[in-house]
Amino acid sequence: MPVIHPSDAVTHEIHGARFVSFATPLSGSKELCAWRGEIPAGTQAPAHTVNREEILHLLAGELLITLDGDTHRVTAGDTVIVNPGATLSVENPTDDTAVTWVTTSIGLSAELADGTVITPPWAN
Predict the structure, then answer these.
(1) What 3-state DSSP class applies to 122?
(2) 3-state secondary structure (DSSP) of residue 41
(3) Contact indicator for 102, 34 with CB cutoff of 8 Å
(4) pTM of the entire predicted model
(5) Residues pairing with 71 in the sheet
(6) For the segment 72-101, what is each residue's pLDDT rounded down to a tens digit?
(7) CA distances to 53, 73, 114 from 110, in Å
């Protein structure tokens, strides 16, 4: 059983947020990816449509999560299920960094409104 220590995790930054990947094919995972997301105060990520189910659990802070046009205030301890094909945007309207734990299957990609497809390295 591989153990991934924080010092082994790989950090990526995009759209003002930090993604610290722990479980990926490079770290030994065969089916799933998992990462910690750090969303600084005032950050608003662009809307994107995902091709895989994502499970987002908020560890600390507060976020505004918009799924397919419906906005939800999410607080520490809440879990959000993002189904494949859903359009998601994330905003941190507070003065504190929000921290998430996200899992998905290997192969996640996200399409932005302008048609750009992002294949995040922390999920592949």
Answers:
(1) helix
(2) coil
(3) yes
(4) 0.91
(5) 66
(6) 999 999 999 999 999 999 999 999 999 999
(7) 11, 22, 11
